[in-house]
Specification:
It is a single chain. The chain is mostly helical. Helices cover about 60% and strands about 0% of the residues. The termini are far apart.
Length: about 200
């Protein structure tokens, strides 16, 4: 019975003593080579997202391309085209020139035809691939003061990758709301079933 009371008294006295002063931290100089290749990883991510977007666009029934969960949200077609448009728009911050005739404000409403949507996704991926592949490591570190005092070109690529994943998640949610299983999930389920049957 005395032990818990003694513990509480010790705890209370420690609280009354005030905060323990922290030792000043001097950042250590890190001279190791970077272990993360942002350029290669960004390209892998963007290519994977593009493939999933294309596969999902091709798996949807045509009439679903105009489906939207609410009147004030984008349709399937508009989300696909928004993904394509943002590759042009975001990378233009690095000086990349979108194709002639590209109009950002009109692009996502430019078509509801599957073949054109798939073509636009693939064309914009090629644009992103060419732009990012053409960047050097020094380019990734190049400052872009218009985005913020410490912002650089690598941040723009990061924004593009994060945005692509965000909209892929949106498309997956749309598909699930319509009872559509994404093709890559169907493939994974088939492999799992085949592996289980082979045991």
């Amino acid at each position: 019975m005395k032990t818990p009371i003694l513990s509480l008294l010790c705890f209370a006295s420690a609280l009354n003593a005030g905060p323990v002063p922290m030792r000043a931290q001097t950042p250590a100089t890190d001279s190791t080579a970077p272990s993360y290749d942002m350029k290669a990883q960004a390209l892998l991510d963007l290519q994977a997202v593009n493939k999933k977007c294309v596969d999902l666009a091709q798996a949807l029934p045509s009439e679903k391309l105009t489906w939207r969960p609410a009147t004030d949200t984008r349709s399937f077609a508009e989300v696909f085209l928004h993904v394509a448009a943002e590759r042009y728009g975001i990378l233009s911050m690095l000086g990349a020139t979108p194709p002639a005739g590209f109009k950002a404000r009109e692009f996502e409403k430019s078509t509801t035809e599957r073949d054109r949507i798939v073509g636009d996704l693939n064309d914009s991926w090629e644009f992103a691939n060419k732009t990012i592949t053409g960047m050097s490591n020094a380019d990734f570190a190049k400052l872009l003061p218009k985005l913020g005092p410490q912002a650089n070109e690598g941040d723009v690529v990061y924004i593009l990758v994060a945005d692509a994943h965000e909209h892929l998640g949106q498309l997956i949610a749309y598909a699930r709301q319509n009872g559509i299983t994404p093709p890559w999930t169907v493939e994974a389920q088939k492999k799992k079933a085949a592996a289980a049957a082979g045991k």
